[in-house]
Specification:
305 residues; alpha/beta; Rossmann fold; 2 domains; 4-stranded mixed sheet; 14 strands; 22% helix
Length: 305
């Protein structure tokens, strides 16, 4: 699983939380990113601006490509935290699974967290849960237990010591987005993407233009060491697309609409070598194209080659 921890302005308490999260994801790909505001105002400058409702501060863009779970660790300042608002407002969070952790020193926290949660949901994110933690108590055993209990509840499959638990639960599948496949701006097919709220596994379903829906019901589950990709087969007249599981070194057998047969080997960079035939084949990772458009027109692919 690809996990990103975004944090800002939380000091020592934030470092402790990041270490706890890293322990839970020791077998995952974990990136930790501190937000970098493009403006510099100093402590009292930011404190004054935090009392302006809804204020956003521009931040350095964060690469969220491939992110399957995002932790957002934010401080409770006056009325809001402008850099955190800036991150939420400037990044595509649609369909992204987010866990919100707010740290605070004192004061009324009751309205702050719901307000920030509404802002995140308003960007189309799947907010799994929220929790507010007092900074002076974060290092205590009681808070450690509370944090662990909270994370176990919002993401049961991520419990420490239960890395394989997703094999034994009933999937709770929700729709998170789609990927359109075009031929020179004309729609050829759509891949609907869904995710289990518990184990975070993806499920894909193809809908190709002019073809009826599949007669079977349910979603195909793929091996844990493979990821979903979309194979496109393009000739001068049409584009055929198909979602399928892949991993580096795996061999794919494919038959074009013309009857021509191919065998591809997935490279370490998750790509295939299309060769020089009359058809152009490309492999696109679902994690990189969620809620985006794949342009697989013949001439555009030849020009990009």
């Amino acid at each position: 699983m690809n996990v990103i921890v975004i944090h800002y302005g939380t000091g020592r308490s934030g470092s402790y939380l990041i270490n706890r999260i890293a322990q839970r994801h020791e077998k995952d790909n974990l990136d930790v990113v501190k937000l970098e505001p493009l403006e510099r105002h100093g402590f009292y400058g930011w404190l004054a601006r935090s009392f302006i409702p809804g204020l956003k501060a521009s931040v350095k863009p964060v690469d969220l490509g491939g992110c399957e779970l995002l932790y957002l660790i934010a401080p409770k300042w006056g009325y809001n935290c402008p850099p955190v608002n800036g991150f939420i407002g400037s990044h595509d969070l649609k369909g992204m699974s987010i866990i919100l952790i707010v740290t605070y020193t004192k004061g009324n926290i009751s309205g702050y967290v719901p307000r920030l949660a509404r802002r995140i949901r308003g960007r189309g994110a799947d907010l799994l849960g929220t929790i507010a933690l007092k900074r002076e108590e974060i290092l205590s055993e009681a808070l450690t237990t509370r944090l662990r209990t909270f994370l176990d509840e919002v993401a049961p499959s991520l419990k420490e010591g239960s890395a394989d638990s997703h094999h034994y639960h009933h999937h709770e599948i929700v729709f998170i987005g789609m990927i359109n496949v075009n031929r020179d701006d004309y729609l050829q097919g759509v891949v609907d993407v869904r995710r289990c709220r518990q184990c975070r596994k993806l499920f894909c379903e193809d809908r190709r233009y002019s073809e009826g829906l599949k007669p079977d019901v349910g979603f195909e589950e793929i091996p844990d060491d493979e990821q979903w990709a979309i194979l496109t087969c393009t000739d001068i007249k049409r584009v055929f697309m198909q979602s399928l599981p892949v991993k580096p070194g795996k061999r794919l057998e494919h038959t074009c609409k013309s009857g021509e047969k191919h065998e591809f080997t997935i490279g370490d960079d998750w790509s295939i070598d299309s060769g020089e035939g009359d058809t152009v084949h490309r492999l696109y990772m679902v994690r990189d194209y969620l809620n985006r458009v794949i342009e697989a027109g013949y001439y555009k692919l030849r020009l990009l080659k």
